[in-house]
Design brief:
The complex is a heterodimer of chains A (468) and B (67). Chain A is 36% helix and 15% strand. Chain A has 468 residues and is α/β, with parallel strands linked by helices. Chain A has one domain: Amidase signature (AS) domain (Amidase signature (AS) enzymes, Alpha-Beta Complex). By secondary structure, chain B is an all-alpha fold. Chain B is 48% helix and 0% strand. Chain B contains two helices and no strands. In chain B, α1 packs antiparallel against α2. The chains are: A alpha/beta (468), B mainly alpha (67).
Chain lengths: 468, 67
């Protein structure tokens, strides 16, 4: 079945067509659900189609638009939720067999806020089981099967927000919500060639989202443009009494700053040694991206401090994950997980000494202070989002040396709760997408979106569509 | 005599507690995982901390009342 080309438009473009009457929320919802049910399932990107809820929300959005009640830029736009967000109308399986029948009778705060913004929830999207927190090494670690990449079905969509990445990249949905504990938004964004925003820790309420690591989990949008990411973040950001880690901080959208408005342009830094272990095509693409950034700012090299951030992240995720999933470890349901590695590793995580966890958290404070000082000096630290393109599904993940995200600032960025945005910047090995990442000081999403907007205004990479 | 690799304490604890679920192959994965965690923890132990370096947790009393 051919996918409706309207679904390939940006949120802003779709909004114009909705308001001009060229399409309707029900037509878009129908097209999205049909596309997800066919192409989406081919890619193992779908956990559930939300037929009843989707059409109900679409009809309401349509009636409101007809009556002149406009809820804003997301009104009538179909979207998909990573299957770790509680939503009435479908099971919330967390990607894991032990939770295949789990049903919640409430909506996660992010889901509720998007509904209030008029967006139309049409599907729960596939994910790596338990958001990858049990240390998966196999790329088929989900009850839905391996997340396939729309650019090449034999390659991986990335994880753990695999369905969110694949569905948006394949033009089945204008946007999706994913989550990141350690690379799970920016990695699928990189591998699938889309734009992914990891907000500052605490920017978006996690109420109703599966907990893996309470001190690292973040929710954020996967879209095709930075502009769209800003629209979605604007709808879901803000404090929530149900999530004590969510805070009231200013998020200005649209961003008020631009390269033209700032006299001296933006100030970027790239970590020394960023290209070590990075695929040569990715190195070339980043160098081209740096040339583009120099059109509207300066780029200088920065020496990042050598700190055991990846090690601290590994310990923290293992300890908090073992606590979050203590029930299935203790009662043995962990043995039902898809990936053989995930059936074993949690048993070790459950024995991690408290002093090692606390030491990791003490080191983390030092990492946070050091990276606050560094990021305060620049508008963004830039570099490759991942040092490699999407791997073939026949391979696995080697976690022996470094955790998932291979960006030079990936581990400290997540440990310190810093925001980051990944944008497509070309193609690499096997014709697979590559990605440029901007990481900023905490709470500077507006500035990151401004620089990403500026980058995308000068490049065409984000407009490339997969052949699928 | 060949050296017998030392089993990390975390692996010993995990096998004691959950060993009846795990076959030989799984126990090997378990030991490897424990060693990786032990290596990470050891790297952190090498990082200098003082008594004043508090963990990055944010405990606060829930509510209460001024009096």
């Amino acid at each position: 079945m051919a996918v409706d080309p309207l679904l390939g438009l940006s949120i802003g473009q779709l909004g114009k067509k909705l308001r001009s009457g060229e399409t309707t929320p029900t037509a878009l919802a129908r097209a999205a659900m049909d596309a997800l049910d066919t192409t989406g399932r081919d890619m193992n990107a779908v956990a559930a189609i939300m037929e009843e809820r989707g059409m109900r929300e679409a009809k309401r959005a349509e009636a409101e638009l007809t009556a002149g009640h406009d809820r804003g830029p997301l009104h009538g736009i179909p979207w998909g939720a990573k299957d770790l967000l509680a939503a009435v109308g479908a099971p919330t399986t967390w990607g894991a067999t032990p939770f295949r029948d789990q049903v919640f009778d409430f909506d996660a705060t992010a889901v509720k806020r998007l509904e209030q913004a008029g967006a139309v929830l049409v599907a729960k999207l596939a994910m790596v089981e338990l958001a990858g927190g049990m240390g998966y090494e196999e790329l088929d670690a989900a009850w839905t099967g391996p997340g396939r990449n729309p650019w090449d079905h034999d390659s991986w969509a990335g994880g753990s927000s695999s369905g969110s990445g694949a569905a948006v990249a394949a033009r089945l949905l204008p946007f999706a919500i994913g989550s990141e504990t350690f690379g799970s938004i920016v990695t699928p964004a990189s591998y699938c060639g889309i734009t992914g925003l990891r907000p500052t820790y605490g920017r978006v309420s996690r109420y109703g989202a599966m907990a893996l690591s309470w001190t690292l989990d973040k929710l954020g949008p996967l879209c095709r443009t930075a502009e769209d990411c800003g629209l979605v973040l604007d709808a879901i950001a803000g404090p929530d009494a149900n999530d004590p880690t969510s805070v009231q901080r200013t998020f200005q959208h649209p961003p008020k700053i631009s390269g033209d408005q700032r006299k001296d342009g933006f100030r970027f830094a790239i970590p020394a040694g960023w290209d070590a272990g990075t695929e040569p095509e990715i190195v070339d693409n980043i160098k081209q991206s740096l040339d583009t950034l120099r059109e509207f700012g300066s780029v200088e090299e920065v020496i990042l401090p050598e700190m055991p951030a990846p090690q601290a992240a590994r310990i923290i995720i293992a300890a908090e994950g073992a606590s979050a999933f203590e029930d299935i470890i203790e009662d043995g349901r962990v043995m039902q997980l898809q990936a053989p590695s995930c059936r074993v590793k949690p048993h070790v995580y459950a024995t991690l000494p408290a002093r090692d966890y606390l030491r990791a958290m003490r080191v983390r404070r030092q990492v946070s202070v050091a990276y606050d000082r560094i990021t305060a000096e620049y508008d963004a630290i830039v570099g490759p989002t991942t040092g490699n393109v999407s791997p073939l599904l026949t391979t696995g993940l080697d976690r022996s040396s470094r955790p998932t995200t291979s960006a030079p600032i990936g581990a400290p960025g997540n440990l310190a709760g810093l925001p980051a945005i990944a944008v497509p910047n070309g193609f690499g090995d096997r014709g697979m997408p590559t990605s440029l990442q901007f990481t900023g000081r905490a709470w500077t999403e507006s500035r990151l979106l401004a620089v990403a907007n500026e980058y995308q205004a000068r490049t065409e990479h984000h407009k490339a569509a997969p052949p699928y | 005599m060949a050296d017998i690799p030392e089993i990390p304490p975390m692996a010993t604890a995990a096998i004691q507690r959950f060993g009846d679920r795990l076959n030989t192959e799984q126990r090997a994965v378990l030991i490897k995982t424990a060693q990786q965690l032990e290596d990470a923890a050891e790297d952190l132990r090498q990082w200098e901390l003082t008594n004043g370096d508090e963990p990055d947790t944010a405990f606060s009393a829930i509510d209460g009342q001024d009096s």
